[in-house]
Amino acid sequence: MRSSPRRARRYAAALALPLAITLNALPALADLSPDPVPPDRASSTAQNGVALMRVVVADQSGVDKLEALGVDLAEYTKPVDGGIEVHAVLSPDEAQSLRDQGFDVRDAISDQSDYAANLAERRQALAAASADASATDTLTPLRAEWFTSLDNQRFLSVEVKTSATDAQTVLTATWDSGPGTAPDSGGTATMSRFTDAGQYMYHRFNAPLPITAVPTRVTITSNRGGSITVPVTKWLGEPRKAPSKHYVQDFVDHYMDPTEVTNRIVSLSKEFPKISEIIDLPYKTNGYRRQAQAQFGTGSGSALASTFYVTSKAYGSEGGNDVSVALVNPGTASAPLSVAVNGKDVVVNLATDASGAVTSTASQVVAALNGNSAASALLTAALYRTSTGTGVVTAAAATKLTDNLKAPASVSRQPFQMKALRIGKSRNGSKTGVFLYCQEHAREWVTPITCVETAERLLRNYAQDADTRKLVDDLDIFVVPTINPDGAHYSMYDYNMQRRNMVNYCAADAADPGRRNSWGVDLNRNFSVGSVRDGYTGGSTSCTSDTFAGPSELSEPETRNEVWLAEKFPNIKFAMNTHSYGGYFMWPPGAYKTAGRETLPRTDLGTEEYFWNASNHILSAVQGWRGTAIWPGRTGPVIDVLYSAAGNSADEFWYNKGIIGWDFEVGADVYDPATKQYRAVGFQPPFEEGHEEAMEFSNGQIGILEVARAYDKDKQRPDSTLVVTDTTDTSTTFTFNVDEPANVYYTLDGSRPTLSSPKLTSSGMREGAAKISIDKTTEVHWFAMDLAGNVEKNYKPDGNGKNYNKETVKVGGRR
């Protein structure tokens, strides 16, 4: 219930009276008339420090007192430790007076600085909207594509950017139904405005639209007056080569735990020793193990103050599970608190008063256990979360501590030896290396079997399939099917939604047994580039967060193993991190700072074009299994199509090692024609679906190997041309076209172009090459170089040759 302004003013008047007035007298004073205007709210133009404040009262009667006093309460209450939290609009004097009379007034939720910022932001938005409304907007098409997915259902995907970025700008797409048909015969749909970190990105459909006929052109119109018509192209148009009749595949028939997966690659290396070997990674994990624990007290309500827990010094599997604790009522009057230890059995004899009633509080029992040398050698005791420890404990029979781990004995409780399977005919570092790794996140059960399937295909098809033999002969392939073995064991046997590893970095207030599913480090937030500790978004420093980045960068053996592999084998030029789920194909950058959406440096134009060019081949390979299409809107840099992931591994490899790194998210949404809805598949779909995902994304991993081999064999030099895009009497605008993904280096001052010269940049996110404008006739010098290092015309940028491109671009006349 919200207080009226009249009651709020009366309350302020009461507070203006001498503070000696009792709390009981204040309601009566609140009825005084006429209403005086308190000095701190006298101005209608100055708010004078009024803020929305948190107030905590013991119970509902406290809320009633505030209401009776005429406090301006928001319609908000929340149970918290110590009572009920309510929110109140208070001036500084009002807040202080409440504190003086015993109310627990805490921090501000929002104050006048927030109000001023909101007004400024509103004024800026209104001004921008007004400016946009006064002129026709310009539309920039980013992508317009059709594709098929599963059962040959056709879909349309369109992305367009408008110069009018306010939320009042509405874009509508209209398309035909094939050559020679009416422009609006295919359908029409309003596009969604896509924003990220508060910034406008572009307009798109929230999901690709199902269509019945293939359109040739789509027209996008804006309510601001802008309009543009563009051709619709085919996404994933490259035909997938059918495997040879001797090609064998489908080697997984169930979800596998990390022990099974690791044994599988070890057995493969023994079966194919001439073309594979096992590499023991240097850092063993902590292992599938936990300290054993027991909790005494329920930890809720009035029992909170008497609740504590104990944790074994040894891991449960190393004796911690054998420790027991009993809380004994001695049954005599005036008994002292004492602790006795017999082997691994700890007995706490509780203190009693003269009547024989137990008097030992939780704090006293915790101190006694930690202060007894024999007991403290076995365990540590701690109060439960926010417990004050003042509550009297209840006697309890001997309780065995337990690590609560349920995996069978086949799963070792010792540190796990992570292994990489290295595949290649020549494993001496002379071939281009590719690193395929899976299951950084424990609950993503499809990913390790994807890596296993790929390893099986490479080794078992080598003898009879020529294409497989080319990959194994010409590449150096490293496969780590489970990066997170400890967390994955825990996910399979204890808590299926476990994302992180199993290490507990929490202090006592978050380390009780009830938190055991909230511990661990998110390995894909633990790397050193663009981390949360550098101010980037998407990781957490809270030990119970699912995106906990760890106590420091690269704190975890699992992540250090990944970095070690890249450093030990510098021939690794490509990497693929396979995750689940959603159906994405992504690359760096993968992190930004929310303020201003400050991103890690974007890849240069040539690299970005290389990523896009490769995606067509790789995603066509994915589609080749059962027809699944990864949407154009889910293809691109991580920060553009998903979110910011501070401290991820792809960024680590790209920015620190120059490794071209991709991310798969297997498990694309499935479209149901009957309901006309998309259905998410989840982390652990029924194995029938999980199997299909593993098969199609193993296809994709093979596609990445094919891209890497093409890179290794690439000796073809790029060819570029200068293209004038616009001319006026006073300026000319031009750009460069290249026949393959490559960077263009140019000069406008007549000097010889080098690798230090300006580089052609992107016009903007997903917009292609930028345009260069000049205001006088200029001789442009340039050359192109692809990612494999091939330079146009065999020009030597660091030499003295003159065989670079030259063209005079005129201003004020025809070229």
From TrEMBL:
<feature type="active site" description="Proton donor/acceptor">
    <location>
        <position position="665"/>
    </location>
</feature>
<keyword id="KW-0482">Metalloprotease</keyword>
<dbReference type="InterPro" id="IPR000834">
    <property type="entry name" value="Peptidase_M14"/>
</dbReference>
<keyword id="KW-0732">Signal</keyword>
<keyword id="KW-0378">Hydrolase</keyword>
<dbReference type="Pfam" id="PF00246">
    <property type="entry name" value="Peptidase_M14"/>
</dbReference>
<keyword id="KW-0645">Protease</keyword>
<keyword id="KW-0862">Zinc</keyword>
<dbReference type="Pfam" id="PF13290">
    <property type="entry name" value="CHB_HEX_C_1"/>
</dbReference>
<protein>
    <recommendedName>
        <fullName>Peptidase M14 domain-containing protein</fullName>
    </recommendedName>
</protein>
<feature type="domain" description="Peptidase M14">
    <location>
        <begin position="383"/>
        <end position="708"/>
    </location>
</feature>
<feature type="signal peptide">
    <location>
        <begin position="1"/>
        <end position="30"/>
    </location>
</feature>
<dbReference type="InterPro" id="IPR059177">
    <property type="entry name" value="GH29D-like_dom"/>
</dbReference>
<comment type="similarity">
    <text>Belongs to the peptidase M14 family.</text>
</comment>
